[in-house]
Structure formats: structure tokens, C-alpha cells
Amino acid sequence: MKELSVDTDTTNTDHVEDIEKKEAYDELIVLLENEDYEPFRENFLKLHEYEQGEFYSLLDNEDRDKLYRLLSPKEISDFFDTLTLSDEEMEEILTGMDARYAAQVLGAMQYDNAADIMNFLPKEVMMSFLALMERDDREEIRILMNYEDDTAGGIMTTEFVSIDSEMTVHQAMEHLRRVAPNSETIYYIFVTDINNKLVGIISLRDLIIADEDEYIGDIMKERVISVNVSDDQEEVAYVMRDYNFLAVPVLDYQEHLVGIITADDIMDVIQEEAEEDYYRLAGMSDEGSPLDDSSFTAAKKRLPWLIGLTLMGMITATMLSTFEDTLEKVALLGAFIPIIGGMAGNAGTQSLAVAVRGLATGDIKRASLLKLAMKDIFTGMMTGITCAVLLFIIITILFGQPVVGLIVSVSLFVAMTVATLTGTFIPMGMSKLGIDPAVASGPFITTSNDIISLMIYFSLANALMGALT
Amino acid sequence: MKELSVDTDTTNTDHVEDIEKKEAYDELIVLLENEDYEPFRENFLKLHEYEQGEFYSLLDNEDRDKLYRLLSPKEISDFFDTLTLSDEEMEEILTGMDARYAAQVLGAMQYDNAADIMNFLPKEVMMSFLALMERDDREEIRILMNYEDDTAGGIMTTEFVSIDSEMTVHQAMEHLRRVAPNSETIYYIFVTDINNKLVGIISLRDLIIADEDEYIGDIMKERVISVNVSDDQEEVAYVMRDYNFLAVPVLDYQEHLVGIITADDIMDVIQEEAEEDYYRLAGMSDEGSPLDDSSFTAAKKRLPWLIGLTLMGMITATMLSTFEDTLEKVALLGAFIPIIGGMAGNAGTQSLAVAVRGLATGDIKRASLLKLAMKDIFTGMMTGITCAVLLFIIITILFGQPVVGLIVSVSLFVAMTVATLTGTFIPMGMSKLGIDPAVASGPFITTSNDIISLMIYFSLANALMGALT
Questions:
Q1: How many CB pairs under 8 A join A and B?
Q2: What is the pLDDT of residue A214?
Q3: Domains along the sequence of chain A with CATH
Q4: To probe the interface with A, which of B202, B310, B441 has the most A CB atoms within 10 Å?
Q5: Where is the CBS domain (chains A, B) (predicted)?
Q6: Does the beta-carbon distance from A331 to B347 stay under 8 Å?
């Protein structure tokens, strides 16, 4: 998720690239610091919520306090909904406000966003905010707080429009006009029965085209694609992307309509999920925005992976040390250790990347295992033979050592084929065991392939020792 | 982009996981193969377009031909819009149809999708389809064909609703009802002046709430966020995500409104761009869906990277061969080549990943270079020292060789620090030179770091040779 860089030491607009925006923000800062109430409010409220949030993130703590005096909790909540600060920053901001004011801001935010924030706050702070909130808001937010962060329940909102199938189009439009200000989207209207079970859906587009006297029940679509509250957010994202939905209804286990998920939330999910796999491939976990991390936080995030890899690297080293005699006799063999291990790692990472994304998007489930294995073996052999021939020619010309060239290139060929195969099947095996295959990140596959490929290399070298010495 | 696996040898539903769907599809196949015109059409047209597309992709060529006889070009176009087949497959499908029928299907598709397909077709096929199309469709598609694939112009549609600011709300609603069937979205209405310049925007939500007699000019928002036809699709995606837009207007250089981009297209872009970086990190180019590639195609895609890396690997090998004497004297040094090179590669890849995504999302532009460098040095030193100490302890205990342990761990420390720094600054330098930093993929950084880190390792070993022999 993209985050705004927050530097709360001093208010400045140095990082704003758009000149027009920069000027507008600079002017606003002057008005704010002079506490020019009316002109500030007028100019500020003209901005898009996202820009209000961008402006807010430029302010130091002192100016933020001034802002709270000039704006209502509702006005603050509008742009707080667009902020994508880390949980820690949000906590700092909210606990820095007057508690009653903060509770009102949270209550006025979109309930799904408020629930996410509440779930992160220390328990006593969260409880006091809940206590200070209006009853309706408290109840809605409480319900949403029960759902896991990365499930449909965790990203849905309860601010949707539902109507009765016995309404006429005219009545439905009237209802819509009334509830529009408090709904996240009015472009899909959900039709429920008296038990709050979802029985149909109608888009605002169809509603507008329809005759005023028709009954909703007669024109709604009865086949509704929905998701369950406990569905993984990634699955929801693929449903919405495939079906091109702007919103999808969320049902509980009794098929009651409990919320909706809108397209804007899904854009974030799609990016989050892809970036998660991306960072895993690079051997790190992605929590928050890595770019904003201090070097200490960055080191803390990267170290678990690096320590694991150091230990795996020691397995390689120990294994290699058993070939000390071979190396002593033909030291030149040592020069090709990086290329053998490296190329096996590269080939493995390529096929890993395809497998991990294939598993994530569900595409790989449709493919047969045997077919995949055969395909990988052929791909590995084709790429392996090409690189091996190239390497043999170079080594023979450059070092005048055809036997070493042969050992290196045959090893390379075998290692790349094996690596291509493990790159697909390790993540698939993990997925079958219920482990997220993205954990089998690039570096782990690379290090495993190091061990396998160098084993092949030195075994072959040992076998051909006679020809070398 | 997710693609449907297409196996056109035989019609079967083996890969459909959802039991209900599978039954529905199986029933449809029977109706289709028996050419039961009416019941087939009734059941088929009840499906969501995405499901129609899914069903279509299960059919073999013979059944597809039957389908064309049962459905109108417009009915075909509705689900063709949801297909995400490779360009080659789409070409095969279209050239397999009656030319006039194919032209009508293309003309009835969303213009942006049709233009994408047309741009890929062989020139003579494309020209003949254009000639067979209705005039209006031909003109719209021709205009869109002029824009680059991955720009705002390339993903926009011309099927939007624009109105005059002097209309009343009532008139606007009437207009909307008329044009709704042919517009990609009616939820944002764009207000233009007589020169077709964009002067404002109004959401359907605001239109519904407004008084019927008000003038559009009085209630529209005059500050409109827009993009230029030549803007990169990735920039457009970030604007839409940040502002939570369902659609964004596209202007030409004279500020005329020429199209709009809708949220559903942007979901694909966000995923495409993230996956592009992902596959680059794994050392491969992502064109189409790698999972569906034959092993020959997969090898062809991966080989350019692998050959480049083989050549880079030979640089490492040549450099290492100059240390043959050192290796001959202390062969154990060879055992640690993979861990030194590997860990430098891992540390470099981690910081590369952060830099590439930071550059892609624009976040890194806001950060100062000096600050980034300092941060990286500290991160590299902290992670380096931790792994180095760990390694020193293990080597001393396991091999009883504290001097080797010292050489390995000091090299590791220096190599990881340098690698962390290069991981950030190589992609940033490339970006400054106008090269896409994602090209500096994981394997290239890894191989560069191999060379640097092993240079450090053996230089240090040479310097301390006296203590070792």
C-alpha cells in the first residue's frame, strides 16, 4: 500500500511535486498558522479528500492541533478515510487528540476503516473510544471488529443500500435519495427478504432505465454472485476482477446480507497481495511500506530471513568442505562454484515465480501435475543445454581446459533441469500442506539449489578426477 | 493478467471446481451439441458475462462454431469483453469465424478492447475487419488504435456520458436514460462546453439527490482531476487508487475530453504492473500468462536472461580463477564461496525490491538520496554484523579455524553492506538515465554482488595468507 511520507518535525511542502498543488498547500499553511478560520475552511474543504489527506500529512503536530480546532470531526473523518498511515502513526495521531474528538472522528469514518484502526489500538484506548462514541457507530464498528483483517468480513462495509422486493421503482428511488449520503455506494442496490436474506440485486443503471411503476422483484437479477464473510480477501479480489463488479455482497453462514465490498477497497487488496508475493520473492516480509522504515526497522524485518539463509548457507559450506581434497588438487574448479550455484538458483527462481503466482491466482489448480512436471523438465533441459554449450565453448577457449569445461557444463545442465523442477514442485507441495507457498521465497529456493547443484558438480568432478590430474 | 486455460481439443468441464457451475455447464454443452436452440439460448444468456466466457473457453472448436450459429454478434461480444486470452489465441478465434460475423463481434465489443485486439492482428486481417464494420464503430475503434498500449489513451473507452452545463437535472436524467445502454459507466457524468472542453463533473449520486430544476452548471464540481492521453497507465492507476475514483476523464493536449478510464480496467493494470515487477525480479519477462506457455515458449522467454547471466557468471569465474593459487593453498576457502556470494545477493535483492517498488509507486522521489544512502549503510551494517558474528561462531566451532572464520565473517559484513547500497542505487541510477529500473532484476544484482563480494573475500584472504599457511 502506498503511504504518505510523514515528517512531523516541521510543516513543509518540499516533497510536493505538482507546482499548482504546492502553491495551494503553501497558501493553506499560511492561513492555518494565522488561524484565519473562514478563508482556511473555504479553501481546504474545496480540496478532494485525498488532497486534504496529503495536505494533512505535510503538517507538523502543532499545525495539526490547529486544524482540529478549525474542522469538525466529520470533516476530519472524510480525509482520514483516505490516509494510509501505518498503525503506529495512526495510534500516535489519535491518542494525541482530545479523546472525545478522536472518538467522534472514528465514529464518522467509514466503519470498515474505523474497525481496522480500533483493532490495532491498545485495549484501554480502544475501549475508551468505543465508550465515547455514539451508540449506532459503536455497534456497527464492534461488529466489524470481529472479523479477521484479511477476510471479506475484514474489508467489507455495512453502509450499503438494501431494499424490499415489493417496492416499486419509484419508491426505491425515493429511498435511495434519502440514504445516499450515508452509503458507500448506491450504484448497486441489494434486495432482501424479511429475514434479511439476499434475494436479488439491481444496479442503479437498470433502476434508472426502468419504468417507475414496475416492482423491484420483477426487474431485479435473482442470480447474485456473493462472497462469505470468512473468504480470503484475495479470493474476493479475483471474483470482483473477473466479474468486473463495482461492489459484491458479503453473506454470513446463514446467508444473511451483512455487508458489501467496494471496488476501491479491492484495488488496494490486489496491490497488497501482489506486493506481498513480490517482497517474499526478495526474501523479506512486507508489513507497511518498507520505504518509510528506519534502518533499524528495515534490519529487523530482513534479519529473520538473512539469519535463516546464513544457516542454510552453512549447510552448503559444510557439504562443500567435504570436497576439500578435490579442490586442493584442481583449484580451478572453485572458480565455477558461483556460476553453477547461481544459474541453478536463477532457473529455480524463474519457475518458482510462475508457480507462486499461478497458485495465488488459482490458475495452477486447473493444470495437471504430470503435465506441469513434463513441461518443467523440458524447459529446464532446453535452457540448460543452451547455457551448457555456451559455457563449454567459453571455458575451452578461455582456459584451454575441455575436461573442466565438460564437468562444468554437464553439471550446469543437470542442475538447471533439477532446479526448474524444484522451483515448481516445492511451492506446490507447500500449498498442498497448507503452507503459503510464497514463503518458499526466492532465496530459499536459491540456497536449496546451491546445495543440490554443487553436490552434482563435485560428484562429477570427483568421478572424472583421473582425467584432471 | 489471469487467463483462462484453453484446451480446444475436446470440450470438457474437468477443470471447473464449483460443482454447481460444472453441472450448469455440462447441461449447456448437451443442449449446444444437440443444437437445442431455444433452451440453450435461454440458459446461456442467464449466465453472467464472465461465466459465459468461462463456458466458451471450455468448448472445442467444433462446439464454438455451433455457438456462433446460435448467438448474435452482440451476444458474443458481451462475453468476449471478459476474455483475457493471449493475442495469438484471439487471432486464431477471430480468423476462424466468418469474416463479416467477426467484424460485427469486434464492432459490438467495448471499443478499447476491440482496438487492443485489432492492433495485434495481421494488417490485412485488421483492414478487412475494419472494412466490414459499421461506420460508427470503425471510426471509434480507429481513433483508439492510435494510442500506445500502456498509456491512458490505450486503456480508455470513448463510451462515456457527457452533457451540457446548461441542462437541468431533469433533462440530464432524461439524457442519461437514453444513452445508458451504450455507456461503459453512467455513474460519473462529464460536463463539456461547446468546444468539447471538460468544464466539470457530476456523479450520478449527486444528480439523484439534486432538485430536478437545478442547472448542471450550478451543482457540478468544477475542479476535475483528469489524466492526459499519453500518461503511463501505471500513473493513471495510482491516481485512481489514491482518489478512489470509479472513472477518470482523459484529455488530449488541447484539453478536449476524449475518453474515460473505468475502475475495472484499472484493477487489471494494477495487477499487471505489480506482476511485471515480480517477474522481472525473478529474472524473466512477463508477456501473457507464463503458466499457459508451452515449455518451448517458456524456454524462449527465460533464455535471454539466463544467457546474459551465464556471461556475467563467467566474469565471476574468470575473476575467481586469478585466485587459483590462494585456493590451492587453503582449499577450505572454496567452501565459503556460495555463502559469501549468496548472502550479498540476498541483501542486495532485498534492498533492490524496496527501491524498485518505491520508484514504481513514486514514493522514492520524495525521499532524499543522502538519507536513503545513510539508511542503507546502517541497515547493511546491522544485518551484516549479525550474520557475520553468527558465522564466525559457527565456523570456529565446526571447523576449528578462527582465522578462516574471521576472513569469512569480515568479508560477509563488508559484502552485505556494499550489496545493500548497490541494491538501492543501481535501480535509482537506471531510473535517472531513463531505463526502467525493474530491468535491474534480482539475478543481475545478485551476479554483480557475486563479483564484488568474492573480490573482497579473496583479497582479504590473500592479505591474511600468512596466518593461514
A1: 387
A2: 94
A3: 19-149 (1.25.60.10), 162-265 (3.10.580.10), 293-468 (1.10.357.20)
A4: B310
A5: 156-219, 220-276
A6: no
